[in-house]
Write a structure and sequence with these properties.
The longest helix is centred in the middle third of the chain and has 27 residues, at 374-400. By secondary structure, the protein is of the alpha/beta class. Among the domains are: 15-77, no CATH class; 92-178, Sandwich (Immunoglobulin-like). Strand 23 (550-553), helix 17 (554-557) and strand 24 form a beta-alpha-beta unit. Helix 7 (299-318) crosses helix 11. It is globular. It is built from 24 helices and 25 strands. The protein has an 8-stranded parallel beta sheet with strand order 22-19-16-13-12-25-24-23.
């Protein structure tokens, strides 16, 4: 397990020491400088580089160690005969890259490739026949690189390769992947609606949306002509003590959130007298009604109410043999990881502390029966089974009707959650992911989760990435990868340092794209990359190369004169007016987000007039553009609703593959679902839609807007 410590500041380095520090950082994939949003070069401070090196496990704590550590690093890299992972792109000629000291570069070797299906491919090769592709000298030893052609058919998938020679054995993970991710032959010009599931609510649900509401909403959107419904991550969260409902800080990326279970749809509810008595009691109905009447989602109270019922049903199912008990046992045998997760959650509840405070045995991943309450373990087993049943029903029904469920994959996980505990060797706990300062977040951002360690992930063949992709792609027709730049690089903030003292760490992007490509094809799912913000050109180039859809967000693209208002909407993109991290369109038009930034201290009072002037010019330019396109009139006053109609029209007539409409924009909502960089300062992740599901269906104005979008998309 990683040792948690605070980054140690070192005295000011002289020129030679600084050079050694920068070379050491680069050798470990730390970028010593980057271009900010204004295309200005920003250099990482000495403290940032030292802190990030330590977070990576490089003990750069004393000035004299730097040159020695650099030599050790370069020598270790030179002595790697095979990298941890090698990619074979299809179509193409598969080759294996090997690196050897020159004195061993002409020997005979044997290859053994064990395919994913268990088949074995064997091949002998005389390295003396092969050309030298690269040379380098380290510590007086010359190393050469050669490429061995792999003969025979290599199927798409994940394979293990062993290189055998009289000098030893060396292994690598061999990933054979299509260059381009999955895409339907004819995507057409589609449209759909985005809505956070917790924000949807109905007369039948208990104050926040559930899987039943999501299915109901999806079916209704299809009657309006849409075929896609997108929502925020549906992953488990801590909803008692602490209560942290953010969908981007999940306990795990491998399970579903029992908060969204539709209690009324559970088969055994009507066979369990105790559960029925509870949910039909006057006191319980009043409790649920209070949750429905609340303007905000009360996660703690609603989860407590659902858990009370789920615990009764859990005891009922586990108490005696039945068909449902058999189905549960079969499910647990097929997915044993659920048992491990349930033990973890039950142990958390018994001890009431973070796993980092447990005994050494428990921290290292071994839990015994006396570490938790078996009844609590059974509750989590049962809740996960029901959640997965309902997700399966939702996704299968959606696909049968030709509709698409668009799920979202968060960048990180809660540092005190299951994934961080079970896969702790893969995480760098002495840093957190974030973002450098920009024009909006002038102090930078610290997102609070421990980043994945790039090299440790490679040594496992990216098994964690495979697992959490599969968990989502079993159900999603479209999967959005949050902050896809994180496949290339992630901004690390060393422990104990402010967010503006971080550094970018590089990741093996192509290896992760290979996994994405394989899994997208295996599940016939489209991949979307969230490529907003300060994104280096190579990210968008990679998205194009691997046929991953990017995002076009109107509010992000707009610019005041004399610049062009926004670029042409790309064909292979998901286009929208905004995202859940941005002000709703009505708030944007009214400039309410500028006032909010002022209130949060992200904008100085003397900067506000210039920002307001720029916003008014943007709106004027937007109106002129939309008038030229015939989507808005040229005279008289105009409202946010007029601009909304015209803005949606502009996206609808574009060549974008998918237009995604924020439900709250349709309702002219002005309150944001999330204000990035805030916690207690704003009510994040808890705002319900102003209209219930029943009211949405009856709203004529909303139906007319969707009808207009549908007509324009069909042209």
């Amino acid at each position: 397990m990683a040792t948690i410590h605070t980054a140690i500041a070192m005295p000011h380095l002289d020129k030679k020491q600084l050079g050694a520090l920068q070379k050491l950082a680069l050798a470990h994939g730390i970028q010593t400088e980057y271009l900010d949003v204004s295309q200005r070069t920003q250099r990482a401070s000495e403290e940032s580089l030292l802190g990030t090196l330590n977070a990576l496990g490089v003990p750069a704590r004393r000035t004299p160690d730097l040159a020695s550590l650099l030599r050790q690093t370069l020598q270790a890299r030179a002595q790697e005969v095979l990298p941890a992972v090698q990619i074979v792109w299809q179509p193409g000629t598969p080759t294996l890259s090997v690196q050897l000291p020159r004195r061993l570069a002409n020997t005979a070797v044997g290859l053994e490739i064990r395919s994913e299906s268990g088949e074995m491919l064997r091949q002998d090769e005389n390295l003396g026949r092969l050309n030298v592709e690269n040379r380098r000298r380290i510590e007086g030893v010359e190393y050469v690189t050669k490429h061995i052609p792999i003969r025979g058919r290599l199927p798409i998938g994940y394979h293990e390769l062993e290189l055998q020679s009289k000098h030893g054995q060396h292994r690598t993970h061999l990933i054979c992947a299509p260059v381009r991710s999955y895409s339907r032959r004819s995507e057409g010009r589609r449209w759909g609606v985005f809505a956070p599931l917790y924000a949807l609510h109905s007369k039948r649900s208990w104050g926040a949306g559930d899987f039943g509401d999501l299915q109901n909403f999806t079916e209704w959107i299809s009657t309006q002509g849409g075929d896609t419904v997108a929502t925020l991550p549906l992953l488990p969260a801590f909803l008692d003590d602490p209560c942290e409902p953010s969908p981007y800080s999940p306990v795990s990326r491998l399970f579903w959130n029992e908060f969204y279970i539709d209690i009324e749809a559970i088969p055994e509810l009507h066979a369990c007298p105790a559960a029925l008595r509870l949910v039909r009691s006057r006191a319980f109905e009043k409790r649920c009604q209070r949750l429905r009447d609340s303007e905000l989602v009360n996660y703690r109270e609603q989860m407590a109410a659902k858990r009370e019922v789920l615990e009764i049903l859990s005891r009922f199912v586990f108490s005696k043999p039945s068909r449902r008990r058999d189905l549960l046992e079969q499910h647990l045998q097929a997915q044993p990881r659920i048992g491990d997760y349930a033990r973890f959650r039950a142990t958390c509840e018994r001890h009431g502390t973070s796993w980092t405070q447990w005994s050494a045995r428990m921290r290292k991943g071994t839990l015994l029966e006396n570490d938790f309450d078996p009844a609590v373990r059974n509750y989590h087993l049962y809740a996960q089974w029901i959640a997965q049943e309902q997700m399966e029903d939702l996704s299968s029904t959606t696909r049968q009707r030709g509709l698409r469920l668009y799920l979202d994959m968060p960048l990180g996980v809660h540092s005190q959650g299951y994934d961080a505990w079970r896969e702790q060797a893969l995480f760098a706990f002495d840093a957190s992911g974030g973002a450098p300062p920009d024009s909006v977040f002038t102090r930078g951002q610290d997102w609070g989760f421990a980043p994945l360690h790039p090299e440790r992930c490679r040594t496992t063949g990216h098994h964690y990435l495979k697992n959490y992709l599969r968990h989502h792609l079993r159900h999603a027709s479209i999967l959005r990868i949050d902050h896809i730049m994180g496949l290339h690089r992630l901004y690390w903030v060393p422990r104990g340092m402010p967010a503006n003292h971080g550094a970018y760490v590089s990741y093996p992007a192509e290896e992760q794209y290979a996994v994405l490509s394989i899994e997208s094809h295996r599940h016939s799912a489209t991949i979307v990359g969230e490529n907003l913000g300060t994104v280096p050109p190579e990210v968008d180039q990679s998205l194009k190369r691997h046929r991953i859809r990017g995002m076009f967000v109107s509010q992000y693209e707009v610019a005041p004169p004399p610049r062009k208002l926004f670029r042409t909407v790309p064909k292979h993109s998901v286009a929208s007016l905004n995202t859940h991290d941005m002000p709703p369109f009505a708030a944007f038009c009214a400039g309410l987000d500028l006032e909010d930034r002022l209130d949060l201290g992200l904008l100085k009072p003397d900067e506000l007039p210039a920002e307001q002037l720029a916003r008014s010019r943007i709106l004027a330019s937007l109106r002129k553009l939309l008038h030229r396109q015939g989507t808005i009139g040229d005279d008289g006053p105009f409202s946010a609703e007029d601009l909304l109609t015209a803005g949606l029209g502009h996206l609808s007539i574009s060549s974008a593959e998918l237009v995604l409409i924020n439900l709250e924009d349709l309702l002219l909502e002005v309150q944001s679902q999330n204000v990035p960089g805030t916690t207690l300062e704003r009510l994040n992740w808890c705002r319900k839609t102003r209209l219930s599901m029943e009211q949405l269906k009856r709203n004529r104005k909303l139906r007319d807007l969707l009808s207009s979008v549908n007509s324009q998309r069909a042209r």
